[in-house]
Write a structure and sequence with these properties.
The complex is a heterodimer of chains A (860) and B (251). Chain A has 860 residues and is α+β, with helices and mostly antiparallel strands. Helices cover 55% and strands 17% of the residues of chain A. Chain A is built from 27 helices and 23 strands. In chain A, a hairpin with a 2-residue loop joins strand 19 and strand 20 (654-655). In chain A, helix 15 crosses helix 25 (773-807). Chain A is elongated and about 105 Å long. Chain A starts with a helix and ends with a helix. In chain A, 48% of the residues are buried. Chain B is an alpha/beta fold and 251 residues long. Chain B has a single domain, classed as Rossmann fold, CATH 3.40.50.300. In chain B, the strands form two sheets. Chain B has a six-stranded mixed β-sheet with strand order 6-7-8-3-9-10. Chain B has a four-stranded antiparallel β-sheet with strand order 2-1-4-5, covered by helices on one side. The chains are: A alpha+beta (860), B alpha/beta (251). The interface between A and B is medium-sized, with 27 and 34 residues.
Chain lengths: 860, 251
């Protein structure tokens, strides 16, 4: 009964304050729609990625191989894999290299021995013809079939080296054609026992594939099996891919979530402001209700009900609106991440519930204090305005002190001066502290600032400069909303600049050649002399990732690693790695040149393996492709290098951050190197740097057989590619921030409408004193502009402190971002602040100027 | 100022109210005119039209020979700025401005130079006896002090007419008397005409001319005695305020 009365009063009161109610509902709507839209679009993108990974890997959750890809007998291994209770089924494969054609022109491919009866992964392949292969039959990848004119029932002959090192021709008949999801080099699939016998590898395999009862536990099983099989590489390809994408987009996700949180905080501010002003206006009504017997809790419930009604309208509309926004964000994602066509996002129950909870939480947080303050109003003071005391105000010294403590703590945290570190503490404390201090400053000196900065008419400036401080709470809420959103805009701008700077620097360090030539095959490293003969070229050096991965056996862990061969005499003159805790650069490379058992290692890999400069690191290597002999060789760590982009550069199967650098002689001796390289780094003489693109074209034309044009690129192209990607990603984050700013505009609009409403008599008096309509418009626009400008003034130190905090953390980008003052973002923030307040103030200002004087003067 | 056959009607819900029914009146220079009458008689409506805050439905209102009923909003704003001063019953002052800032406001609006406007505001505040309260905000002043600031502000621009709507309505008898005395003497010094709408007989006693209104018409013109001569007037019984009808009686 009581609840229905509360709801009835709330329901009938809201339409009386139509404009502010609409704006507040609109703010909640936008906040919730943003959250729902982003979540749906993200779910769509991640869902599509998972879908893709699942298609690519089929039902395979776990793959066990021997590090150097040498065949092994499955006896022990298979039983250990099967002993894990989470493993549902396993299958075995033998991967080998084969060739088709003659020695002058051949195509290499993977020969994969499968058992069609047990291979659950093979069973999911898209094969035309027969997928069942028996003795003398093969299923051929479509690309290979097309290249060699093969169709079902065609016969052909392949060549391979047996385990004994003998060349063996194998005649085959095409049983079926496979259409793989993606080509990673072509493969043919043969009957496993048949292939084992052909290669003289009876009973041996190279891979065990396993599927699990619960795919989400793949990483757990991977860990368990790795402990059981320390010398083997156990991987969970699907889970690792998801993990990798989630790691790489972690900073992006943090950015999105923080922006959404800001929008919701701004919504709370708006709800608070609207309801608090309503309580102030309805003091008399509250007094009457209390006088006729309403309890404090009933008054509390009435105002809470008003808040929740706003919340319900805004949230439900927001969830529906989110459906529309999701489409927008999905298309932005498609552009940002170059994904061709993401599926239309689905509104899942969990996203809808998240939206509901977030919307109602924001509204509840904003409505709580006004409802409590309404319930505490004194009856006599409520019904007799003359008995009302001035509102009890918090002492400025107390507010200042709180502000200083919060800001001090937040700033210390940003600057990492505190002995502890709590993630995001500065993100919360810095804005709150600044706003509290700003409120005190605004109350005492806001007028002086206004006089300085607002060049409107004297009359307008005169009144406007004196108005803000009188309505300190609502002014604080207004500039607070602006300050919060713009602080983050400035921070994001700074991060964007910093990430660009760091990545550019990192790219220059890791791949800093003017031209990066990528051939369609490995070329003898002597090809370098062809390049240095070109007049514009100052120097050139080969870069050779080994085909066969190796395994590092470190003090604190083992890891499958990539091997990257360089020429120590030329490489450092083109690429300048940053070495940490290492001898000088020349000493490092001298050691690498002189000692075939020395290597350079990235810092992330060094810490994973637990090695430092001078330590021995055992590496399980394949000495030669011919006889497949393996051995463990101790290497000395000659240098440890670092760089922000290593984790993004992939050579073969390994990222640069997981690859060690050795000399070509070392690669030849220990890693089956053949003094060939598919990549050549070219440095141009200083006067020809600007001609990189044309020189690259010339080289492509001069050596058409290597098809350099396909994948090669200049440093400028690489940097602009990176910048483009960064800009697209940040544009998306900023897009969301603009939504937050739009919400803040709505809040300012609601505040200004309330200001017009409770200053009607003042407006009437001003008009009666000869103040024109235009001057009244300018007065409210001026006050709004001032609030925006003050919010901007707070946002500058706030944004820079947040930026400092962000640059002191690696969690955003996975590396330290340099602190660069974002002047462009600051100017942009000023413009945004002014645009936001003008949007918010225009209607209220016009409304104020159009008030009828006699009606305005009727207000008490 | 000359009013010729002024009529004003407006809708109040479904009812049409005829607030003025053919009012004709002439206001002479430096005259202190008091309008009395029961609530709803049209006093405040008349005052609002004289003050250019409202427009009549028909008739003419001439100020210095110009018909204000034909002026646009900008012209009326300028007229108010330079020729008319207002004193209301309460909440007369801009709450965010101090006493001298309130008095200075119309001068600033008129574009008077800063020093000149400050001197004029201080001079007026001295004349109303508030030279020690110049930096106080309205809510730090008593009701009488607020009305004195309002009188000083109303006279700041040397207006031709000062309009006062129940200026003593919110004051005790003694303070009300002092305020009327002040308004009367200062208006005479400045050469401004004054029109006061009131229920207060103390105010009526100061009138050069007393006008009574009833049902939107001027029903009686009281004798116009020689300046300074005291006379007995007919007391008009004050009625309780009626919500939503006047400047001075807000709902």
């Amino acid at each position: 009964m009581e609840e229905s009365l509360s709801a009835k009063i709330a329901f009938r009161s809201l339409p009386k304050r139509r404009a502010r109610t609409i704006l507040t509902v609109a703010a909640v709507f936008l906040g919730v729609a943003l959250l729902v839209g982003i979540n749906m679009a993200t779910a769509s993108a991640l869902g599509e990625f998972n879908n893709y990974i699942n298609k690519f890997w089929g039902a395979t959750d776990i793959v066990v191989t021997y590090g150097t890809e040498a065949p092994f007998y499955p006896n022990q291994t298979l039983s250990k894999v099967l002993s894990d209770p989470l493993v549902r089924q396993t299958t075995q494969r033998l991967n080998w290299l084969g060739a088709i054609g003659n020695s002058a022109s051949n195509t290499t491919f993977f020969m994969i021995g499968v058992d069609p009866k047990t291979d659950f992964d093979y069973a999911t392949f898209n094969i035309t013809g027969s997928s069942r292969v028996s003795f003398g039959e093969a299923v051929v990848d479509n690309i290979l079939a097309q290249k060699h004119g093969l169709s079902v029932d065609s016969t052909f002959e392949i060549f391979t080296l047996t385990s004994q090192g003998n060349i063996r021709p194998i005649p085959l008949r095409v049983a079926g054609i496979n259409y793989p999801l993606r080509n990673l080099g072509s493969s043919i699939y043969m009957y496993l026992p048949d292939m084992q016998s052909d290669l003289v590898l009876g009973g041996q395999i190279t891979h065990i594939y396993a599927s699990l009862y619960d795919s989400t536990k793949a990483l757990l099983v991977e860990n368990d099996l790795q402990k059981l099989l320390p010398l083997y590489d156990v991987s969970a390809p699907k889970a690792e891919a998801v993990q990798r994408i989630s790691d790489q987009t972690a900073g992006f996700q943090i950015g999105l979530n923080v922006m959404i949180a800001i929008s919701l905080v701004v919504c709370s501010f708006i709800v608070f402001n609207t309801l608090f002003m309503t309580v102030m206006e309805r003091t008399y009504e509250i007094g009457i209700m209390r006088a006729v017997g309403s309890s404090r809790s009933q008054i509390f419930r009435i105002f809470l009900a008003e808040g929740l009604l706003i919340g319900a309208l805004g949230t439900i509309a927001g969830i529906l609106g989110g459906l529309g926004l999701a489409r927008l964000f999905t298309s932005v994602f498609e552009t940002t991440f170059n994904v061709p066509s993401l599926p239309v996002a689905q509104l899942t129950p969990s996203i809808a519930i998240t939206g509901l909870v977030a919307g109602f939480s924001a509204v509840f947080a904003g409505a709580l204090y006004p409802a409590i303050s309404a319930s505490r109003i004194n009856i006599i003071q409520a019904i007799r305005p003359s008995a009302r005391n001035a509102r009890r105000q918090l002492p400025p010294s107390g507010v200042s002190l709180t502000g200083i403590v919060l800001l001090g703590l937040g700033a210390s945290e940003s600057l990492r001066l505190t002995p502890f570190h709590i993630a995001y503490l500065d993100v919360i404390l810095v804005p709150i502290g600044l706003i509290l201090l700003g409120a005190v400053f605004f109350g005492t000196t806001g007028r002086a600032i206004m006089l300085l900065v607002f060049p409107a008419s004297r009359t307008v400036r005169y009144v406007a400069s004196r108005s803000g401080r009188r309505r300190l709470l609502r002014s604080t809420v207004s500039f607070g909303m602006i300050a919060i959103t713009l602080s983050f805009a400035i921070m994001i701008g700074g991060i964007q600049g910093g990430v660009q700077e760091a990545l550019q620097q990192g790219i220059k360090e890791a791949l800093g050649a003017d031209i990066i030539l990528v051939a369609n095959q490995s070329i003898p490293i002597s090809f370098t002399s062809n390049l240095t003969r070109i007049t514009q070229v100052a120097s050139a050096t080969p870069l050779s990732p080994s085909d066969h991965p190796a395994k590092a056996l470190g003090k604190s862990g083992n890891s499958s690693i990539g091997i990257l061969a360089v020429d120590p005499s030329v490489f450092p003159s083109i690429i300048s790695y940053t070495f940490v805790n290492s001898p000088t650069v020349s000493q490092v490379y001298s050691r690498l040149a002189a000692d075939n058992r020395s290597l350079l290692i990235p810092d992330s890999l060094a810490s994973k393996l637990g090695v430092v400069v001078g330590d021995q690191l055992s590496i399980l290597t394949r000495n030669s492709t011919v006889n497949n002999t393996n051995s463990t060789v101790p290497f000395t760590v000659a240098g440890v290098f670092t760089g922000p982009v290593l984790q993004y550069i992939q050579f073969g199967e390994h990222f640069a951050s997981d690859s060690v650098v050795v000399s070509f002689t070392s690669q030849r001796e220990y890693f089956a190197g053949t003094d060939t390289a598919p990549v050549f780094l070219v440095d141009l003489s200083s006067q020809n740097k600007s001609q990189a693109a044309s020189v690259a074209r010339d080289i492509t034309t001069m050596f058409p057989q290597y098809n350099f044009g396909q994948n090669s690129l200049t440093l400028g192209e690489l940097l602009s590619l990176v910048n483009g990607t960064i800009n697209r990603i940040f544009a998306l984050i900023l897009l969301i921030l603009y939504f937050a700013l739009l919400i803040a505009s709505l809040g300012i609009g609601a505040t200004m409408i309330m200001s017009v409403s409770d200053r009607r008599r003042e407006i009437g008096l001003l008009r009666s004193q000869g103040v024109s309509r235009l001057q009244i418009t300018a007065l409210f626009l001026g006050e709004g502009t001032f609030l925006g400008f003050f919010g901007f003034l707070l946002a500058v130190p706030g944004g820079l402190l947040l930026l400092k905090g962000a640059t002191n953390s690696t969690s955003l980008a996975g590396f330290f971002i340099p602190f660069i003052i974002p002047y462009g973002a600051i100017v942009q923030a000023l413009i945004l602040a002014l645009v936001a307040v003008l949007i918010g103030s225009l209607y209220p200002a016009v409304r104020a100027s159009r008030l009828e004087i006699t009606r305005a003067l009727e207000q008490v | 100022m000359e009013l010729e056959n002024l009529e004003k009607s407006y809708r109040l819900g479904k009812v049409t109210v005829n607030a003025l029914r053919g009012v004709t009146l002439k206001l002479r220079q430096a005259e202190f005119m008091v309008i009395m009458g029961p609530s709803g008689s049209g006093k405040t409506t008349l005052l609002n039209i004289i003050g250019t805050l409202d427009k009549p439905s028909s008739g003419r209102a001439l100020v210095d020979g110009e018909d204000i009923t034909r002026m646009n909003d900008g012209q009326l704003t300028k007229l108010r700025r330079h020729k008319i001063g207002f004193v209301f019953q309460f909440h007369n002052l801009i709450p965010v401005l101090t006493a001298w800032e309130n008095v200075e406001l119309p001068l600033i609006t008129s574009g008077v130079k800063r020093k000149e406007s400050k001197d004029r505001a201080m001079e007026l505040l001295r004349r109303v006896g508030l030279q020690d309260r110049t930096d106080h905000l309205p809510d730090e002043l008593s009701g009488g002090e607020q009305q004195r600031v309002a009188i000083a502000r109303a006279l700041a621009n040397h207006p031709r007419i000062v309009l006062a709507d129940e200026p003593t309505g919110d004051l005790d008898t003694q303070t009300g008397f002092e305020v009327v005395q002040l308004m009367h003497s200062m208006a005479k010094q400045e050469g401004s005409s004054v029109v006061v709408v009131t229920h207060d007989p103390v105010v009526a006693e100061k009138a050069d001319r007393l006008v009574e209104m009833r049902d939107g018409r001027i029903t009686e013109k009281v004798r116009e005695p020689p300046m300074g001569q005291r006379r007995t007037i007919r007391a008009v019984e004050p009625l309780p305020p009626e919500p939503g009808r006047s400047l001075s009686q807000p709902n």
